[in-house]
């Protein structure tokens, strides 16, 4: 049998042997030629593939080469039943183990270089030939299609005699593909920048196309006879199946609607706010653009940003949108807002996907309710029983994986999902493919430490280099951070002399393009112009008195405490016959936290009634960034200035006919910012706060500025307050150590981030990073490591997730994973490092853990099972802290999870 015929029997996809049936022997496997043509067809038809600037014949040829390494005997032997004896003879185990992606790179770069010459030959002039290093950039991109670049000891691997044996087959494989695609020679790129962009884009597209092209439901296995004529298979089988697969994946082509004003995009807006008016009329920079909008909470920044995004999309500079938020709660809130408007970005005939992208997206009932089955998103059919089916659309294929969710035409998620596009984690290029061609909209971009700021700068640099535009929103951005992010974007555009920003206006819109940078002062919304009186309170008893007095007037009252332990302690101290505070923090099981969140929205949201609002809420900082709620009076622990201003935005933010307390008063619990203090200025007074915000100098400076100003006057003194509080040049001598330590930590965090982020210039190469699994999310630094505790109750010999105990509908086997996820609490490892399982419950606990994923079962130090038994105060379990000391864990739905030292004896 000649090599061309023999190649039909090399497999690319196969059933696991334990699933094979003799009666199905004809389709035990999918021929390698068929698989690579399936993937190439997907790549050619995927919307946005034209951004690579390649002819479809060139693109198809390159992508089809991605799995050439599967020709190697070391891969073919993985499924003995599918061994291609027609080409390799009798089955043998005696082949060196290797990775097919690395083998593919070697075949393309070294053993089959001559067979690929026609792909690069533009002229007889040798000076116009591609360099071998330039070719390798393309081979790295297509061969590294399993989430990271192919890597091995290249010199040693070349010595494997299998290569010499298989090289003629690989060369014939290439000839078959050249006949299918007949690609013109790839042109020489005018600059290294263009080739570098193609390398990253090609890596992302190959990953994306391979994920879709590997789905058996969309590409059913065929027999070797089906690829006897590879060209016919490509045109008559691969392309039609790819077209249908792309539609069912939720990635079908969509058309952006023309921009016709903000009222068309948001029907509820009759009169645009000042910033909205600016953003629907100002001339945007040509090409990739960065827009920074700084304005007060409630100014309509989000709608202004969406107007800007729509204008960029309508002008052909973007095909979609990804909105990145600091937390899962803010992502949920944004998802709810976009549900009402995202379809207006596109023509009515289009079917754009809207996806929620974060690690717990599948716990959001609204998002899960609109996931269409994998076979439902064709042109004509959408299930009638799906909630809001006519308006909201997302395929299950997109929605089940946070990495794939970024591929949706409109995505909403945590900033972590976007940052992982520039971190050396597996499938970073999949996220890059998701962001490619989209407007990146980042909300609350001030809420980052030095580490995340550096990641954010890297993301903007990368996004600009790939031709993308970005919009950043903030109510409280310092000039230094605004300059850093602007410079990063201009660096990505290859601007040699980056602009120096100078405006101190507020509100402010900054427009950044390749040609120039504009800073546009903006008027404030009239109804947001206000003066909040600020009172520094130096003892907790006075705060308690203020809260009780306001509660007696049936006011809506909130106290934001900086730590969960302080939240619980204050709530317990305030509880009386007449006051039963609502407690809200992050140390509740997820099912209870979501229920509390709904209750808080009901009691204090924009549509809350006067009767419902007569309540006291004691909350951790989750309050400041997640919910659209407001209070008649607000108390807070001292915090950095930007957070104080953000918290003050929850004070009387909604229009109401009548309030029990009309004056806008903010009470800040803080030690007195005297000129002479000792180094324990914060820790003696608020020890938990000192643990959360370790730069006492920053807290002192915030308190000192507010003591002098005595008010937050919006918008007049917002910029002044932010910049003055950030100036730590004049703080008490005793706090200089904290200031210097904080600066040192900031430099260290910046340096660590610079080491961790991907180097765009280095390209998609194995030796520039560790390329770790993205199960661990290295987007944020943890001063104190946390563990995930899964709460459960034991009844006889049965262990049930806490969520299933609370909600019986989660009892079914189908809902088990969801029930365990809804039973999770995150706890600092030093508080709880190990949960104790009674001997008589070990077998039941083991059965319960068996439904967890393999990684969760293996990571016993990261995922703890806490068995709870009832007692007079709620539920109780036992464990050990980070020092190995016994602790008692108490849980109830009023206060959440508490940990106490065990009483010996």
Write up this protein.
InterPro entries: Cas3-like_dom, CRISPR-assoc_Cas3_HD, CRISPR-assoc_Cas3_HD_sf, DEAD_box_RNA_helicases, Helicase_ATP-bd, Helicase_Cas3_CRISPR-ass_core, P-loop_NTPase. Residues 376-391 have low confidence and may be disordered. The chain is built from 36 helices and 27 strands. It is α/β, with parallel strands linked by helices. An eight-stranded mixed β-sheet has the order 5-8-4-9-10-3-11-12, sandwiched between helices. Strands 20, 21, 22, 23, 24, 25, 26 and 27 form an eight-stranded mixed β-sheet that branches. Strands 15-16-14-17-18-13-19 form a seven-stranded mixed β-sheet, with helices on both faces. The protein has four domains: 3-248, Hypothetical protein af1432 (Orthogonal Bundle), CATH 1.10.3210.30; 262-359 and 402-521, Rossmann fold (3-Layer(aba) Sandwich); 526-733, P-loop containing nucleotide triphosphate hydrolases (Rossmann fold), CATH 3.40.50; 786-901, no CATH class. Helix 6 (100-111) runs antiparallel to helix 7 (132-143) and helix 10 (192-213) crosses helix 20 (428-435).
Walk me through the topology.
Layout: H1 3-6, E1 11-14, E2 29-31, H2 32-45, H3 56-64, H4 73-76, H5 85-88, H6 100-111, H7 132-143, H8 154-157, H9 162-181, H10 192-213, H11 230-248, H12 262-265, H13 274-279, E3 290-294, H14 301-314, E4 320-325, H15 328-339, E5 354-357, H16 365-369, E6 371-372, E7 394-395, H17 396-399, H18 402-405, E8 410-414, H19 415-419, H20 428-435, E9 438-442, H21 450-465, E10 469-474, H22 479-492, E11 508-512, E12 517-521, E13 530-537, H23 540-552, E14 556-560, H24 564-574, E15 582-584, H25 590-604, H26 610-613, E16 615-619, H27 623-626, E17 633-637, H28 641-648, E18 665-669, H29 687-692, H30 696-709, E19 711-714, H31 718-726, H32 736-756, E20 786-795, E21 798-801, H33 802-806, H34 816-821, E22 824-828, E23 834-835, H35 842-849, H36 854-858, E24 863-871, E25 874-880, E26 886-892, E27 896-901
Parallel strand pairs: 3-10, 4-8, 4-9, 5-8, 6-7, 9-10, 13-18, 14-16, 14-17, 15-16, 17-18, 20-24
Antiparallel strand pairs: 1-2, 3-11, 11-12, 13-19, 20-21, 20-22, 23-25, 24-25, 25-26, 26-27
